[in-house]
Amino acid sequence: MIKPIDTKLNAAAQNNFSLTEPDRTRSSASIEVRNLSYCYGKKRVLDCVNLTLPRGINILLGPNGAGKSTLFSLLTGLKSASLAKTGAGKDLAVDTANNEIKVCGLSLQNARRNIMRSMGVVFQQSTLDLDLTVKQNLLYHASLQGISSANALSNISDILSVLALKDKLDVKVRALNGGHRRRVEIARALLHLPSVLLLDEPTVGLDIESRALIIKYVRALTQREGLCVLWATHLMDEVTLEDRLIVLSGGDVKAHGITQDLCSQYQVDDVPQLYRKLTASMEVI
Ligand SMILES: Nc1ncnc2c1ncn2[C@@H]1O[C@H](COP(=O)(O)OP(=O)(O)OP(=O)(O)O)[C@@H](O)[C@H]1O
Fold it and tell me: Are residues 221 and 80 in the same domain?
């Protein structure tokens, strides 16, 4: 039986939780991508991608292999779009002369450290240390971000209460279920009060209750705090008509705009129809 969504979270998500020290860059929370291409060997998986993502929820939809995770790796600096310039590594970024990634108005190439301070990331694969407790995982991340233990503990306490995880503080991650682990990853991504949040399929494999809880929390926080969120998913019921939608297929941006406007433009009734029309994919989840 499906249990009702945690009422504590509902109340907190709607009213009570607010990050206490807004990041200096939050007013300019945004992501800009210009002429971004990327190849693995000879295979081009991103083809001159251009995107301007403002504050709010920006949903990235695309079939398997569309290039979503590669885009995330480039945005987080895990992959470089300028390898061709240095000749390093086997993977080859192309069109390096013109490509640019800006986060909160800062160029990733020149201001990587500042950008990392204003960015929270949840990767597709869990990156928590299974043998550390929730608290140890979060404190370690906070220390990497240069947050004092006292401030970190205060933020951890706030975020975990909202995510209904406070009783798991001293539990080893290995002992948590998938939904709880995902919530810990979201807490970790928010601990340093980022302006930009990157979520690579954060709800994949979760039960209905955990999914709903995470979606509600991220949406409420985005609205309250003015975050810019890039959210990759295959789950079309996570998209609302007000969200900005990016449809990526074969490394190409097929459409980019407010979902409602795109549905009107392509004369379809809903997101699954829009997705099928733009990607010729039968995948509808
Ligand atoms: N390290 C790599 N070496 C070679 N090819 C790769 C590598 N990583 C990804 N690819 C290929 O690049 C393409 C894009 O992969 P990517 O993981 O970015 O897509 P995706 O949209 O995130 O897919 P999914 O929805 O399945 O996670 C795919 O064809 C994939 O096989």
Answer: yes
Token pair in block for residue 206: 């979760």
The model's pLDDT over 139-197, given as tens digits with 9 standing for 90+, comes to 999 999 889 888 899 989 999 998 889 999 999 999 999 989 999 999 999 998 899 99
Kindly report the backbone phi and psi dihedral angles of residue 185, in degrees, each rounded to the nearest multiple of 5, phi listed first: -65, -35
Distance 69 CA to ligand 1 centre (A): 7
* Residue 132 included in any domain: yes
Say if residue 32 is in the same domain as residue 111.
yes
| Spatial contact of 182 and 210, defined as CB atoms under 8 Å apart | yes
Predicted pLDDT at 60: 97
User: Is position 201 within any domain?
Assistant: no
DSSP 2: P
Question: Is 80 part of a structural domain of the chain?
Answer: yes
Measured from the Cα of 66, ligand 1's closest atom is 21
Residues 6+ apart with CB under 8 A from 110: none
CA-proximal residue: ligand 1, atom 17 (nearest): 69
ipTM associated with this complex: 0.97
